[in-house]
Structures
1.
Amino acid sequence: GVAVLKFKNPPVNSLSLGMLMELVISLEKLENNKAIRGIVITSERPGIFATSLDLMEMCGQNPAHYAEYWKAVQELWLRLYQSNKVLVAAINGAYPTGECLIPLTCDYRVMADNPKYTIGLKETLVGIVAPFWFKDTLVNTFRHRSAECTLQLGMLFLPTEALQVGIVDQVVPKEQVQSTALSVMAQWMAIPDHAQQLTKSMMWKLTVDHLVSRDADIQFFVFTSRDSIQKAM
Amino acid sequence: GVAVLKFKNPPVNSLSLGMLMELVISLEKLENNKAIRGIVITSERPGIFATSLDLMEMCGQNPAHYAEYWKAVQELWLRLYQSNKVLVAAINGAYPTGECLIPLTCDYRVMADNPKYTIGLKETLVGIVAPFWFKDTLVNTFRHRSAECTLQLGMLFLPTEALQVGIVDQVVPKEQVQSTALSVMAQWMAIPDHAQQLTKSMMWKLTVDHLVSRDADIQFFVFTSRDSIQKAM
Amino acid sequence: GVAVLKFKNPPVNSLSLGMLMELVISLEKLENNKAIRGIVITSERPGIFATSLDLMEMCGQNPAHYAEYWKAVQELWLRLYQSNKVLVAAINGAYPTGECLIPLTCDYRVMADNPKYTIGLKETLVGIVAPFWFKDTLVNTFRHRSAECTLQLGMLFLPTEALQVGIVDQVVPKEQVQSTALSVMAQWMAIPDHAQQLTKSMMWKLTVDHLVSRDADIQFFVFTSRDSIQKAM
């Protein structure tokens, strides 16, 4: 079967520490449920997809809090990127502050064709250096050159631009986002799961393996972001 | 001079163990022939290019046979991918079961513009996990993202789609496939061969180096394919 | 502030050993100047951008001279590719002999739309094997597949072709090259420099790290180029 995971963290679904922990627990339950082969990831409130990093968690806190927060971000990424389920993102809202961390861990991305919606990543604009593993995810999805500009300039894309650069796979009218996500899911689930899962794991293994030292990555984040986020805001 | 290597293994040119061994011997002879600088690879029977993996060799056999078969597949790939000759694929037929292993080892691919022809790879559909070195060849030719979808979903492409995704370099009317292949060959042979060969070897070295442990790859193939191929068929 | 670095080495701005050394010194001064955040790289003489490798330095000289020359080429590339400044290439002329080493180390490339101008690299045509680090720069900018053909065949591109393949980012009328370069620069300089520099360094680090053994690369160059350049000319 297919599960639907809906983000809900008013007002803008931002990835607070609490939200990250809740997501990791939900994903673990779904991962262990053998009856579930695919997960559609979407927002409960059309119009606001968000799930951006929560600047409040990264601003004016002590280093231990920064470290705890970043560890939770890593954990979510690792769970999603190594999932044995087929993941399809049904992007039914905007990323006002940009980060597309979660959609990029999915096998397929469907986005609503609404000129008010954007997707991308504004990390550098708020003084954050995207971690290397997110950079690798982006290089895998884009071309290296597009990833260079997007990451350094903190670019946001409208739906049609996102399609062209390859950040999403399909753009459809907003009322068709869910049904398209489900039919894409059906296509992926038609593949013998043993072969599909091993193939996916082979494709992404190198990217995951690079995060073997999570501590170094946490320290780099705390070191580079502590002052610069506050300065940029 | 330019040699033309024509596949011939009725009815569909599939890569049986015998065919693999014959190809390796033919390639070794050509490789050692200093008078030959380029090889056009094509099918003797227009309409059927094929050279797909032979499911009969991978179904209901004992593990030792699986291992022997896979070693021969590796050997063919290594010979082709490390060839010092300029290789041009003149694709004058369909790949009914898909695998494009051989064309992707060539320096250039010309395909006949026939809507009955397709090229791609259906490995996952029959329960096979493509080996990492074939994945790497695909990532080098496509974008990483296109390779993800193609490999996981076992996709086949019509000639125009194949051109767009980059699996072939040129699509021409079927009666021009051979002449186009030869004029492409002339273009490549105009380059000082010393510089061209060293440049090619530099581009592909990393991909080849990853296969240093052929045994691990053979065992992975036997382990992952033994049951799943039969189940999928 | 923004500095403008103008090439000037009549008649065709080629990268002689003297010119390389002068460039490295100029770059070091700019790099140490904290008031400078960006550098526009251009030619003093519109019509001739050039800055190609100087074949006179690589032809009929003794091995020690080859080695000294190549070390200087490495040094220039390392300085540019690791620069903490934003680099924008304002390509206001042709590369008659092709190499696009310097523009490819920049963060952004603007080229004049003149059908007499070309950009690319003709290394193999004159018997030179491009070094692996230049290959990596090219793969980062292009797709792997485009880099294969471009490097092996020694291809040159007209401005519109260069844009399509991704070797330049923007093509504009020749009288707008400088102003476009400056407005691109303003866009990059709007990013908090701490975050932008660390992001850039993360993107390119792997490519730079590969050149840890400069001696092996020098010896490979001397060995492969000594006879073949003279033969090709």
Note: The first helix of chain A runs from residue 17 to 32.
2.
Amino acid sequence: MGVEERREQLIAVALELFSVRSPDEVSIDDIASAAGISRPLVYHYFPGKHSLYEAAVRRAADELTARLREPHTGPLSVRLLRVMSRYFDFVADHGPGFSALLRGGATVGSKQANAVVDDVRQAAYEQVLAHLRIDAPGPRLALVVRSWVGLAETTALTWLDGRTMPRADLEVQLVHGFLALAAVTAADDEETAEVIRRIIANEPADGLIGHLVTTLLGLLPANGGPLLVPRDAPPGRPPGTPEEAATAAAPTAP
Amino acid sequence: MGVEERREQLIAVALELFSVRSPDEVSIDDIASAAGISRPLVYHYFPGKHSLYEAAVRRAADELTARLREPHTGPLSVRLLRVMSRYFDFVADHGPGFSALLRGGATVGSKQANAVVDDVRQAAYEQVLAHLRIDAPGPRLALVVRSWVGLAETTALTWLDGRTMPRADLEVQLVHGFLALAAVTAADDEETAEVIRRIIANEPADGLIGHLVTTLLGLLPANGGPLLVPRDAPPGRPPGTPEEAATAAAPTAP
């Protein structure tokens, strides 16, 4: 085997081992034996476990980034759902390595590996913005998208920890979660509100978002209850600043 | 000074330095000089920078956990807003150390320090459940609360990175975010739906949640638009499984 070929083989073998056991529990001996070569020969291609681990993380990151790509056609909810499905495929394939890396539990190569993770987050962030047709988001819309990327990670890590919920449900819930995070920001940010209006305009009535909106309206008290101000009230903006709203809502007794 | 007193002093000094510079950029010499003692004397109390860093992280974690405590009276939105305000006080006080620890960028003591971070997340999770008056949540409600704790972290880290948004707005938005994440789960989970109904029943019409609901309804197309199924449709459940809904929503051309 040539040098590049052998390096590729070792990265693939390492990645496979990290996908079934935490990186902390995989030794250079394990990798050598799985690759059918001697321990000194592994060191010939990688100076140590750190550098092999980093190369494996970089390979996994490239794979994940490729899986996040999605054509810009059809309703956003359908696109996001397909991306979430491929994301959970990846998470399912790389469980222990994914957990160890994101939980920061791996004792190997943390600083460089974390930089690679940040690159994937950045790629995911840029992908979502491209789907929203936004080039330079304001800070609030940027936060919505970054928060959602974080939400997907938290959800995936929680799923891996016992796999007690069907992943298909979590994929749908993450699509809903995106809309929900955008919606609460849209309440105070016109750029995000405009994005939501554009998304909703392209969603079919019998799609994921239509059902979500219908179901959420069903959670409100009958006839709106005391919470709802009449719909002919001035639209769009709650009266006063958030601070005033909080003060108004605070109980009078301490 | 006695041994305990001296250790306490060194922890306090270290924590103060980590609050203005990343832990990677603080040396034992810096700590010794800030404490007005010699470098060997620091080593007399702590075997190395690792152990002093871990002690400082543990101290900060105790402080944060204490700040998360909130009496169980008044509307939930007001309680959560007060907790978020104290959370952002803490984040503002410990910026560089907080970022380095949560971004996994600190080269010192990561494994033990991460375990301490996980303990704080767990404490926050249990606090929120106690406010919801839930002892043993189902997996979906548990995920809502864990996701929200993660959302607060992402938001705080994004805020620290340039402080481009007023923190008061982000505190309000996190309270909204909790309701939003719970609401999308409530669409498919009766336990969470019941929690939302209880929350809403205790919220004043002119409070944070009332304004949020009113504003969100304002985002919907006029007269409901094509998205809205009539309100007398069977309540609570979208027809079919999420997969069917996704298939129904998929565009017919590839």
Note: The domain at 71-202 of chain B is CATH 1.10.357.10 (Tetracycline Repressor; domain 2).
